[in-house]
Amino acid sequence: MQYEHILIRYGELTLKGRNRKLFTTQLAENVRQALIKFPAVKVQKNHDRMYIVLNGENPEPILERCSTIFGIQSMSLAIKVANEEEAIKEQALKLLLDSKNIRTFKVSTKRSNKDFPIGSQEFNHILGGYLLNNSENITVDVHYPDLEISVDIRTEATYLTSKKIRGAAGLPVGSSGKALLLLSGGIDSPVAGYLAMKRGMQLEAIHFHSPPYTSDRAMEKVLDLAEKLSFYGHSVKVHIVPFTALQQKVHREIPHGYSMTVMRRMMMRISEAFARKKGILSLITGESLGQVASQTMESMYAINAVTSYPVIRPLITMDKTEIISISEEINMYDISIRPYEDCCTVFVPNAPKTKPRLEKVEQFEASLIFEPDIEEIVEAIETVEIKTRESQEQELDDLL
Ligand code: ATP
Ligand code: MG
């Protein structure tokens, strides 16, 4: 069967009322970007669904690429036919006969085009009867058919589809604003970033780097993780924070039980100051309640106190096993477990306070002059832009 269209269903997007156009426009743009290496392909957007016109391209790699685009509920290969009974019958029969290992089928007609003269129930019978009469050893099963042929009679044409392929769901990346992800090289924060993207957030990432205590390899890990993230959306900028001097200062001047809390507060301050400068309105971390000393309720309270920014913690209620299984699913786990140390593990005291008290933290910080350091650090942040694989290939093509 020569399919010429892929039908894309929006799912949750259809609930968005007046904002819907914004969402669908973003989704169409994201699909176009993701399919940039298939120049013949065209994307057509309606208010309630989208069509990819294949123009001769093989649908398989396109379906596969689209399966990681958030905002798509499901996809089907579709045949576009004129709104004529005979034409629909002919194509539906072809679809049935071309399907392998089919013993039962069902026809489901939806007629949004009321100018079409036959009602949907009646058309189910007419088409079902026609298919039965023109095939052998195939019967109708309305409950558990091997093949369901959906006939969607619309104003511009009729679309025939059979299989539904599950999409990545969620909302189109870019439709929920931009957030700054605190990205370490660990398992959790990349998963947090992925889940935030699934809710439509576009990401920039900030990474705290403490050479020579942390190596280039540790940095490389972070960039590799950012590349994996970029696959689900747009290019990801990774902002690299030169953190060594301030970390040393904290380590030197704050009692060890509290140095971890203070260091985290510095990370929050720097992240917020940088986000503010970039007009980004929220922070994301990979924190999960109770996982380590800095992720107790008391720690989060003391750390969070330095920022008025919303801090989004997509993993807060998840078990480590759940987080790991997502990490594996999105192919990040093998990168995350590469054994290079993060700045937070290098300076971690033997016994960090699991229940730091805010008054004490503030008291210790009062004797530390750190505001100029923060300003200086924010100024010195360097940015690496991780492009999506598609835009890298496109640039290469443009060069050649
Ligand atoms: P992860 O697996 O994300 O490293 P973790 O379980 O190691 O998390 P922590 O070390 O307590 O937990 O870090 C908590 C969160 O702080 C991380 O999920 C991340 O969002 C942020 N973070 C930690 N280290 C860094 C870093 N070097 N650069 C940027 N953000 C960091
Ligand atoms: Mg970590």
From TrEMBL:
<dbReference type="InterPro" id="IPR003720">
    <property type="entry name" value="tRNA_STrfase"/>
</dbReference>
<keyword id="KW-0067">ATP-binding</keyword>
<protein>
    <recommendedName>
        <fullName>Probable tRNA sulfurtransferase</fullName>
        <ecNumber>2.8.1.4</ecNumber>
    </recommendedName>
</protein>
<dbReference type="InterPro" id="IPR054173">
    <property type="entry name" value="ThiI_fer"/>
</dbReference>
<keyword id="KW-0808">Transferase</keyword>
<dbReference type="GO" id="GO:0009229">
    <property type="term" value="P:thiamine diphosphate biosynthetic process"/>
</dbReference>
<keyword id="KW-0963">Cytoplasm</keyword>
<keyword id="KW-0784">Thiamine biosynthesis</keyword>
<feature type="binding site">
    <location>
        <position position="264"/>
    </location>
    <ligand>
        <name>ATP</name>
    </ligand>
</feature>
<comment type="function">
    <text>Catalyzes the ATP-dependent transfer of a sulfur to tRNA to produce 4-thiouridine in position 8 of tRNAs, which functions as a near-UV photosensor. Also catalyzes the transfer of sulfur to the sulfur carrier protein ThiS, forming ThiS-thiocarboxylate. This is a step in the synthesis of thiazole, in the thiamine biosynthesis pathway. The sulfur is donated as persulfide by IscS.</text>
</comment>
<dbReference type="GO" id="GO:0140741">
    <property type="term" value="F:tRNA-uracil-4 sulfurtransferase activity"/>
</dbReference>
<feature type="binding site">
    <location>
        <position position="295"/>
    </location>
    <ligand>
        <name>ATP</name>
    </ligand>
</feature>
<dbReference type="GO" id="GO:0005829">
    <property type="term" value="C:cytosol"/>
</dbReference>
<dbReference type="GO" id="GO:0004810">
    <property type="term" value="F:CCA tRNA nucleotidyltransferase activity"/>
</dbReference>
<dbReference type="InterPro" id="IPR020536">
    <property type="entry name" value="ThiI_AANH"/>
</dbReference>
<dbReference type="Pfam" id="PF02926">
    <property type="entry name" value="THUMP"/>
</dbReference>
<keyword id="KW-0547">Nucleotide-binding</keyword>
<keyword id="KW-0820">tRNA-binding</keyword>
<dbReference type="InterPro" id="IPR049961">
    <property type="entry name" value="ThiI_N"/>
</dbReference>
<dbReference type="GO" id="GO:0009228">
    <property type="term" value="P:thiamine biosynthetic process"/>
</dbReference>
<dbReference type="Pfam" id="PF22025">
    <property type="entry name" value="ThiI_fer"/>
</dbReference>
<comment type="similarity">
    <text>Belongs to the ThiI family.</text>
</comment>
<dbReference type="GO" id="GO:0000049">
    <property type="term" value="F:tRNA binding"/>
</dbReference>
<dbReference type="Pfam" id="PF02568">
    <property type="entry name" value="ThiI"/>
</dbReference>
<dbReference type="GO" id="GO:0002937">
    <property type="term" value="P:tRNA 4-thiouridine biosynthesis"/>
</dbReference>
<comment type="pathway">
    <text>Cofactor biosynthesis; thiamine diphosphate biosynthesis.</text>
</comment>
<feature type="domain" description="THUMP">
    <location>
        <begin position="60"/>
        <end position="164"/>
    </location>
</feature>
<feature type="binding site">
    <location>
        <begin position="207"/>
        <end position="208"/>
    </location>
    <ligand>
        <name>ATP</name>
    </ligand>
</feature>
<dbReference type="GO" id="GO:0005524">
    <property type="term" value="F:ATP binding"/>
</dbReference>
<feature type="binding site">
    <location>
        <position position="286"/>
    </location>
    <ligand>
        <name>ATP</name>
    </ligand>
</feature>
<dbReference type="GO" id="GO:0052837">
    <property type="term" value="P:thiazole biosynthetic process"/>
</dbReference>
<feature type="binding site">
    <location>
        <begin position="182"/>
        <end position="183"/>
    </location>
    <ligand>
        <name>ATP</name>
    </ligand>
</feature>
<dbReference type="InterPro" id="IPR014729">
    <property type="entry name" value="Rossmann-like_a/b/a_fold"/>
</dbReference>
<dbReference type="InterPro" id="IPR004114">
    <property type="entry name" value="THUMP_dom"/>
</dbReference>
<dbReference type="InterPro" id="IPR049962">
    <property type="entry name" value="THUMP_ThiI"/>
</dbReference>
<keyword id="KW-0694">RNA-binding</keyword>
<dbReference type="InterPro" id="IPR050102">
    <property type="entry name" value="tRNA_sulfurtransferase_ThiI"/>
</dbReference>
